[in-house]
Amino acid sequence: MVGATGHPRPGGGTGRPARGLDHGGRLGRGERVIPAHKPSPPARPRPGSLTALVLALALCLALPAAALAARDWPRPTAPLADYAQVVPPKYAQAIDALGQELLQKTGAALVVATLPALEDETIEEAAVRLFETWGIGKKGEDRGVLILVAVSQRRLRIEVGYGLEGVITDAAAGRVRDQDLVPQLKQNQYGPGLLAGSQALARLIAASAGVELTGAPKAKAKAKQRSSGWGLGGIFIALLVFWLLVRLGGRRGGGGGGLGGRGGGDLLTGLILGSMLGGGGRGGRGGGFDSFGGGFGGFGGGMSGGGGASGGF
User: Fold this and answer.
1) Alpha-carbon span 71 to 66, nearest angstrom
2) Is the Cβ–Cβ distance between 206 and 106 less than 8 Å?
3) DSSP characters for the chain?
4) Dist CA 150 CA 129 (whole Å)
5) Residues 136-147: tens digit of each pLDDT
6) 65 pLDDT more than 70
7) Which of 63, 69, 142, 259 is 20 to 30 A away from residue 47, measured at CA?
8) For residue 93, what are the contacts with CB-CB under 8 A and spacing of at least 6?
């Protein structure tokens, strides 16, 4: 219905107020206003999707560490650098002992390295870079050999230093690869395979030097250090005894020849300091090129000659 002004009346033109409202615009009894539609709150991420996002981020951060360039792997402190963590402890100990004995008796450095993966480089390139970066063998002599295994690519390399090229020829390195390394590595037996390959190379070096390997390096320097060195505990006890004696001497007030007097105190001081310095001097030897003291001594700036053998497994 149209009003006098020509506009429709509220309520659909019936002349009555809209349903639920009286003429004053108030709600009638028993009536309610339906609220307008409210916008939905933003969707929250599901726990599952958040977990997947975190895992993906962690994987992205971990991948570069697993595929470092060869030159970025730190120089090890032992003959075995098991960065791929595939060598069981008993084989790792045997490889370390063999490398130490070989170094002591022949001056040649045998290093075994496992990497999780290679980054944009071949196994040959990685071996040369590791050899030069770590400096395997003495500088100028270059009597070093490296066994390198890339686990992800399933590739291996025997890299020979200049000074050992006449001992470990390419043909000899190929035999060690085929007979000692590959058969075990194919079965994922990294410990037995790397130990067998290390022993084969070590036998070639020992034979050329006219020495015999037993698998047990000399430990005279370490035994001497343990028996002669004072250590922190011994130094503390010595200082405590000295302090007590000085205190007792001071209370007595003597100035003559007793242990508490000046003469005795000076004598006791000399004895204690002399014993400490003497023991430290005898026990502090080690760490040279021919021992493990403070790290494997087989890294002296040696260079690779490019000889050796590569292969897959």
Assistant:
1) 13
2) yes
3) -B-TTSSBPTTTSSSSPPTTB-TTSPBPTT--PPPPPPPPPPPPPPHHHHHHHHHHHHHHHHHHHHT--GGGSPPPSSSEEETT--S-HHHHHHHHHHHHHHHHHH--EEEEEEES--SSS-HHHHHHHHHHHHTBEETTT--EEEEEEETTTTEEEEEEEGGGTTTS-HHHHHHHIIIIIHHHHHTT-HHHHHHHHHHHHHHHHHHHHT----S----HHHHHHHHH--HHHHHHHHHHHHHHHHHHHHHHT--SSSTTSHHHHHHHHHHHHHHHHHHHHHHT---STTS-TTS-S-EEB--EEEEEEEEE-
4) 14
5) 999 999 999 999
6) no
7) 63
8) none
pLDDT value of residue 231: 56
| Mean pLDDT, the chain, integer | 74
The pair phi, psi for residue 189, each rounded to 5°, is: -90, 75
Look at phi and psi of residue 156 and say left if phi exceeds 0, alpha if psi is from -120 to 50, else beta.
Answer: beta
pLDDT at 281 over 50: no
